[in-house]
Amino acid sequence: xxxxxxxxxxxxxxxxxxxxxxxxxxxxxxxxxxxxxxxxxxxxxxxxxxxxxxxxxxxxxxxxxxxxxxxxxxxxxxxxxxxxxxxxxxxxxxxxxxxxxxxxxxx
Length: 107
Known about the structure:
Layout: H1 2-12, E1 32-48, E2 51-56, H2 61-71, E3 78-91, E4 94-106
Antiparallel strand pairs: 1-2, 1-4, 3-4
């Protein structure tokens, strides 16, 4: 019975992250540098469509995608007009969840 309860607790645990502001207001005046794009992914093992048990890279996925978008344009320090998309791929009991950030790079 203890093992069953332990397994239920492990299966119900999930990963979460703090609030991520993908587009904080830049200080005025700012210069638009062009379109920016960034992506970051997380891997899940023992993944079912309604639950992922073991996740790698899930808690900082949005921060990494935002940093990749800013880094995609030379001299950029921030983003405006940001959109976020997610892409999920499942392979039996493994999954990959990617955050894709698009926006206008600013300095």
